[in-house]
Amino acid sequence: MKWKAFKTAFPYTIPIFAGFWFLGMTYGIYMNVSGFSFVYPMVMSLTVFGGSLEFLAVSMLLSKFAPLQTFIMVLMVQARHLFYGIAMLDRFQGMGLKKFYLIFGMCDESFSINCTADIPEDVDRGCFMFFVTLLNHFYWFSGATVGGILGSLVTFNTEGLDFVMTAMFVVIFLEQWLKEKKHYTAYIGLASSVACLLLFGADSFLVPSMACIVAGLTFMRKPIEKAGGLV
To answer: Are 204 and 71 spatial neighbours (Cβ–Cβ below 8 Å)?
Structure first.
């Protein structure tokens, strides 16, 4: 039964393998050229398993100790997982111990597959979702570990590699922009960030801007939802 679930789950994860290995290796190399041993991306990819958050963690580890800012940043970046968890409550019922790993390992890609996959009736749903999550986790973990090891062998100029994090968030922003019919959320985010940057400076604007974004989204929640801006 488990082998059949694995064979059913694996083809769904092949496209994820390509993306996760490339991004994972990039993350591992980025960590290495930032001064960290390959152990850091290996352990973080195994225990944190949050791609965008792990990229952000590099700058957090290199900056001054700021627990409040770190907590708010982590909460904001990963907040969507709260909604993923709510959406999967019914699907995770009766999963036994597998449920705890499914909750821990639920990333965007695993959530999408587990929600939309057409699982045959003779395949155990719990095992299918477990293997989807496990495979995606393994792809990211192995890519990050290999990247961390290869980073020490890199001989070309890696100056500017840290721009990958900026580029990643620009892509996320553009994807959200294209999905929205009306760009309320984008305008709130841009206006809040620019205003707080001017008021508080580059070193202190992050927490105030996030607070303003949350307040703005809360205040504009109904018109945003009506326009299809929050999905």
So the answer is: no
CB 147 within 8 Å of CB 34: no
* Residue range of the domain that includes 205: 180-226
If you search the block for the tokens 């979702």, which residue do you land on? 129
For residues 188 and 87, membership in a common domain is answered with no
pTM for this prediction: 0.72
Quote the number of domains for the chain.
2
pLDDT by 10s per residue, the chain, length 231: 688 999 999 999 998 898 889 889 989 998 988 889 999 999 999 999 888 889 888 888 888 888 888 888 888 778 778 777 877 888 888 888 999 999 999 988 888 888 878 888 889 999 999 999 999 999 999 999 999 998 877 666 656 655 665 665 676 677 777 777 778 888 888 898 899 889 988 777 777 887 888 788 788 877 776 665 544
User: How far is residue 116's CA from residue 228's CA, in Å, rounded to a whole number?
Assistant: 21
